[in-house]
Design goal:
3 strands, alpha+beta, three-stranded antiparallel beta sheet, rbstp2171
Length: about 110
């Protein structure tokens, strides 16, 4: 890894933390239940490190909105102990209405959007 890449990662993380502070979002991971259609799922909030990693992926794949959303779902849907249950590929198999509900809840829990 080059020095420039290390610095870029450090700058990205610092920027994500700054945005989170301004938004009043805590740089922490919480795992909480989410009931959807009578089934309990667990959703993990994304700390600054995870958000920075997704930001790096997004920059490299800026036209792939679907890929971004699938990565958000895969990073957020966990078991009660915090272990990821989905990959982006398996998240793609979710019914559209289920994926949409999960994404809406992820946005709400992370303090994104309106």
């Amino acid at each position: 890894m080059t020095h420039a890449k290390k610095n870029d990662g450090a700058r990205r993380l610092k920027a994500v933390r700054r945005v989170m502070r301004r938004a009043g979002a805590k740089d922490e991971t919480r795992i909480e239940p989410f009931v959807l259609n009578g089934h309990t799922l667990y959703l993990r909030t994304l700390n600054a490190e995870r958000q920075a990693a997704i930001s790096v992926w997004r920059e490299a794949n800026n036209r792939d909105v679907t890929g971004l959303l699938l990565r958000l779902v895969a990073a957020s849907v966990v078991d009660a102990a915090g272990r990821e249950l989905l990959t982006p590929a398996t998240a793609a198999d979710l019914p559209a209405n289920v994926a949409r509900a999960i994404i809406t809840e992820i946005e709400k829990r992370n303090g994104w959007g309106g």
